[in-house]
Design a protein that fits this description.
It comes from Cohnella candidum. Helix content is 19%, strand content 26%. By secondary structure, it is an alpha+beta fold.
């Protein structure tokens, strides 16, 4: 980025700064004198406390820094020590941020996971949750700590429900995400307009769509997908000043690494203060070791060039090793970038990179004058530090917020006949292995030891209604395994750690195993000999301990305060899980170490691990079970029966339900999908389906408890459960993601009527995977056949995903959720006409016509009737909502929703800005996106989408409003490095792919020039008017374009595919303003720009 482009770079009028003078050997005095306390090392400057003095104060601090100082703080991850500046009087400055900490939804108090918080649809409560996090984070450190930096209030929107980190975002909707992320962020940092309770960064900026090749791959989105969908959730909190920086995403966006993405400029230009941006953990160095374009092996050749791009993008290094090895940059690399003027960077650019770090120190009161007690005067949050009134999970108000958040995030999906809530006098049978489990999400904080905290669903129900009224059965399938080698049954001794053998003549307790089907092909096995889970980590050394298949010491999934078990991504004491495979002839094989697992250094990408990884259970010559046979060895084995078993089903899932039905009034079946085993950081799901054995448990139990079966779904992700919804024997379904320390306490309260659930889904629950984008045949051939979905497309418009663009009827729509009460909506009052630049009110009434006091979530959507984007415009769009609290039976509430017309906007691809289109809009008020109860039409006086005219060369990606099949590709590193736009080309992946440009003035146009590239022997692009199949205006045909090499950035040779200009004479004589479509006849054809002549 050139000097002066970043918003914070406003010092261009200064003739010369002291730092620049020092660099070039000219004497200069500081522009702003520090008058702080003199220590043995240096002077601690003092800030006046007046926000108007922020910039001159920070300039003064920067003026005291020479190149070494600036480079030290630019490499913030390793700036772990205080430092005396090396210029002027010498200022004593604190350590750098050193990366901050992930406190996604908890510090001391264990709050619900982010998507569960989203399901509250309660921005006031979310702000309270944020306030708890901020208070507790501030209480972790003292006033002498200048870097209480945390990452939370996540603004990711993930369009694909298979994404491994789905639960970290609030919603699939950008508006809801933006409102809730901003509310949480404001709670975290506090309401003071200048001072910060803590320093907050959000993540992952931007298009963190999946875990698929996240360290090496490319995510694609179009210009509308970027500006209408991916960015708004971030920009709301940034523009309101509630977040102070962003963590960039792994992988590349349209071929450009996230850590150096020019899109970071959009965040910086929106912020009222300088933004402290960092790359994701070790993500910056990937530009040196990864991200080749087919011509260069990596994006940049060395750490110096990486540092230059980080400076230009306004992004700090976040590399944990900093050894200087390729991909492990140090402070010296920042110095070299400046000294060698790589990409034209100079010390002024480096100053601006360090500026936000200094601003953050000021805004947490670090430099304020101290009073007699050593507290910074004027800093409003001094009492929250360790020197003041420390707060943590034992603070009563924090516990109240955690419980309310757990309650409000519960979503009632089905309640036929009003079966819920149950009476506490009922006798209930609780079934499911997961009923006695707590499945924590990836970044859940440690659960505190408090009354009612850390309970499994079973424990919570027993605590609420009494253990004497609760019967429990795991309901798992029970099997025996007969070795095809020995003909004997696999047996487990009762001692912990005893090796399994295949030498039993008959089936008894020692030969009986419960099977836990986690879904996505993962299974765990529990021996009934001692109730322990089976383990076998696998080893090529068949005689080693790691190869032994044996009992473990783990006997449960729930967290008890005697054992302290937590199943989350970082836990090591969760049940071992295996791939349980069926051969062509119906035999069974068990493999360890093959299923995708989270790891910073997986030996192979997770989507390929099943092809080559792991060890099969085999019976050795001593009849003992070992895990030492690789897939390659099995194919060549002279004794394949050693790894083959016959499954003998002793008991189907839910087999004991008929017996339980004799003495119990209702069945509560707990099913779901947990983190790490099914998905998580580094691993996407392969399938939406609920585990087959868990689905059988539901149906078999419901058949014995017809109309009296309640299903509890505990999952961090949407599941395909249409069959359970359609099962007439299933009366009710309650959904909860991870609800934090009180999640299951809240669940029990809702099941038995102490609380009325009213949460709403924040994602679409599809019936199946048929509408998800598919991998191409060539891509499918290279990965595990279990993975069929293309996870690289982060554009909901092109994929037709999310409620905004989908035509598919789901099981549960975005915003769906029931209550124990019935509500009627009426008396809609909407202006007939509004200007697009002023907010307006939508008024209506909500009446509780039921018998239960309940919350209700009213939602307002809009639809533009005559958008210039036609079928490619959002089908409906959330623009306002309100959670109405505690509506009593018979009570009518007057509801007012204040609406910002700017939230109607689409991205005008021809004017390159947001536009609220003029015309008629449907206003749709209801309980969900597919349950509209009130409608009205309103006229909006706004903008019109711009027109593309003749003789203007336009980047096609920037002007595309509709697309199919294309991806984005960086045009050239040289163009990206000057940060002036036109970064991406559209690239076809197959025949028939297309892009559309709206409102092209074709009057008098005789020829169209395209700037194209292809490594193919030939390529061609058809030009159609009106639609991809509309009138053919002409065809541009061309041959292979050659690679080009050129010098860039000082010492770097860039190697890329070259472009050429081709023209297409228009056979027809088009007239008027029409949409223009470029249709590709081959894959791997790129188009950079178009010009009408």
């Amino acid at each position: 980025m050139s000097v002066g482009l970043r918003k914070s770079t406003t010092f261009g009028k200064r003739v010369m700064t002291a730092a620049l003078a020092a660099l070039i050997g000219v004497s200069a005095l500081p522009a702003f004198a520090g008058t702080g306390k003199v220590s043995a090392e240096g002077i601690v400057p003092v800030f006046s406390g007046n926000p108007k003095d922020l910039r001159p104060f920070v300039n003064d601090v920067l003026d005291h820094m020479n190149l070494d100082d600036l480079a030290y703080y630019a490499a913030q991850k390793t700036a772990a020590e205080s430092r005396v500046t090396l210029y002027g009087t010498g200022y004593l400055l604190p350590p750098g941020a050193v990366g901050g900490s992930d406190n996604v939804h908890g510090v001391s108090t264990d709050m619900p996971v982010t998507n569960q918080l989203g399901q509250t649809w309660d921005q006031d409560l979310i702000k309270q949750v944020g306030s708890v996090l901020g208070d507790e984070k501030r209480s972790e450190v003292g006033l002498d700590n200048a870097n209480p930096l945390m990452f939370s209030a996540i603004a990711d929107v993930r369009i694909n429900p298979l994404s491994g980190r789905y639960e970290e975002g609030f919603a699939e909707d950008p508006y809801l995400t933006g409102v809730l992320a901003d509310s949480m962020a404001r709670g975290i940092v506090g309401d003071d307009p200048f001072y910060l309770k803590v320093q907050l960064g959000t993540k992952h900026f931007m298009t963190y769509n999946s875990e698929w090749n996240r360290n090496t791959g490319n995510y694609y989105t179009g210009v509308r997908g970027l500006n209408e969908y991916q960015l708004p959730g971030f920009l709301k909190a940034i523009s309101n000043g509630s977040v102070q920086g962003v963590m960039s995403s792994y992988a590349t966006l349209n071929g450009v690494p996230g850590a150096v993405s020019p899109e970071l400029i959009k965040a910086e230009l929106k912020s009222p203060f300088s933004l402290f941006n960092v790359s994701d953990f070790n993500g910056d160095g990937l530009a040196v070791t990864q991200y080749g374009n087919g011509y260069d092996k990596s994006y940049v050749p060395d750490n110096d060039h990486l540092a230059a791009l980080l400076i230009l993008a306004g992004s700090h290094m976040n590399n944990s090793s900093a050894t200087g090895a390729p991909g492990s940059p140090t402070a010296d690399n920042y110095k070299n970038a400046v000294l060698h003027k790589i990409h034209g960077v100079n010390i002024l650019n480096l100053r601006e990179l360090v500026r936000p770090q200094v601003e953050l120190w000021v805004r947490v009161g670090y430099f304020n004058k101290k009073d007699d007690k050593g507290q910074p005067t004027g800093y409003p949050y001094a009492n929250l530090t360790v020197e003041g009134q420390k707060t943590d999970a034992t603070t009563a108000s924090h516990q109240d917020v955690a419980l309310e958040a757990a309650r409000e995030g519960l979503v009632l999906l089905k309640n036929e006949g009003g079966v819920l809530p149950l009476s506490k006098s009922s006798n209930v049978a609780v079934l499911g292995t997961l009923a006695d489990a707590r499945l924590k999400d990836i970044y859940g904080s440690a659960t505190p030891k408090l009354d009612g905290a850390g309970l499994s669903p079973l424990a919570a129900i027993r605590q609420l209604i009494g253990s004497d009224k609760v019967a429990y059965d795991a309901g798992a399938k029970t099997i025996a395994l007969q070795s095809d080698k020995t003909g004997k049954y696999v047996s487990a001794a009762s001692g912990n750690g005893s090796q399994l053998t295949a030498d039993a003549d008959k089936v008894g307790p020692n030969e009986t195993f419960q099977v836990l089907d986690w879904g996505n092909r993962a299974y765990s096995f529990k021996s009934l000999a001692n109730g322990k889970w089976i383990a076998g980590s696998g080893s090529a050394d068949a005689s080693g301990d790691k190869a032994k298949v044996s009992n473990t010491a783990i006997d449960r999934l729930s967290e008890s305060w005697g054992g302290g078990f937590e199943l989350n991504m970082f836990a090591t004491n969760f049940p071992p899980y295996f791939s349980y495979e069926t051969t062509a002839d119906g035999r069974k094989r068990i493999r360890t170490g093959a299923l995708p697992a989270w790891s910073f250094s997986s030996p192979v990408p997770f989507q390929k691990s099943m092809l080559t990884q792991g060890y099969y259970f085999s019976v050795n010559d001593g009849n003992a079970l070992v895990a030492s046979t690789t897939p390659a060895q099995l194919k060549q084995s002279a004794d394949p029966k050693a790894s083959s078993f016959s499954e003998v089903v002793l008991q189907e899932p839910g087999a004991k339900a008929s017996e339980l039905a004799k003495s119990n009034d209702y069945a509560i079946v707990v099913v779901g999908a947990g983190p790490k085993i099914v998905a998580g950081e580094g691993v996407d799901r392969s399938d939406l389906s609920l585990a087959a054995d868990q689905a059988k448990l539901v149906h078999n139990t419901a058949a014995q408890f017809p109309g009296k079966t309640i299903v509890v779904i505990n999952s961090d992700y949407p599941l395909a459960v249409q069959d359970i919804q359609d099962d007439k024997n299933v009366a009710s379904i309650m959904y909860s993601s991870y609800g934090g320390q009180y999640g299951n306490k809240a669940l029990a309260e809702a099941l038995f009527g102490d609380y009325a659930p009213a949460g709403r889904l924040t994602g679409t629950w599809l019936k199946d995977m048929s509408s998800l984008p598919k991998l191409s045949a060539s891509e499918q051939a290279e990965v595990d056949p279990g993975y069929t979905v293309d996870m690289s497309i982060a554009d909901p418009i092109q994929t037709g995903l999310t409620y905004l663009y989908s035509d598919v009827k789901p099981t549960y729509a975005f915003g769906y959720g029931l209550t124990y009460a019935n509500f009627e909506y009426g008396n809609l009052n909407v202006p007939k006409s509004i200007p697009s630049n002023k907010p307006f009110d939508v008024k209506f009434t909500v009446t509780n016509t039921g018998k239960t006091t309940s919350d209700e979530v009213a939602q307002l959507y809009v639809h533009a009737r005559n958008s210039a984007y036609g079928e490619y415009a959002p089908k409906q769009k959330l623009v306002a909502f309100k959670r109405i609290k505690n509506v009593k039976p018979g009570q009518t509430v007057n509801v007012t929703l204040t609406v910002q017309p700017s939230d109607f906007a689409v991205w005008d691809v021809n004017k390159q800005k947001n536009a609220v289109e003029s015309g008629a809009y449907d206003l749709l008020v209801g309980r969900s996106s597919d349950n509209v109860l009130l409608k009205s039409v309103m006229d909006v006086k706004g903008d019109t989408i711009g027109t593309l005219g003749k003789n203007t060369e336009a980047n096609v990606w920037e002007h595309t409003f509709a697309s199919n099949g294309v991806i984005g590709t960086e045009v050239s590193k040289a163009r990206t490095a000057i940060y002036k736009g036109q970064y991406y080309a559209v690239t076809s992946t197959g025949e028939g792919d297309f892009v559309g440009i709206p409102k092209v003035d074709l009057n008098g146009v005789k020829q169209i020039a395209l700037r194209v590239a292809t490594p193919n022997a030939a390529g061609s692009v058809e030009v159609h008017a009106g639609s991809p199949s509309g009138t053919l205006l002409g065809t541009a045909a061309f041959g292979q374009t050659s690679p080009v090499s050129y010098g860039i950035g000082g010492g770097q040779t860039a190697n890329e595919l070259g472009y050429t200009e081709v023209t297409a004479d228009l056979a027809a004589k088009p007239k008027g303003v029409q949409n223009l479509f470029l249709v590709f006849r081959e894959g791997n054809v790129r188009v950079d720009s178009i010009k009408l002549k």
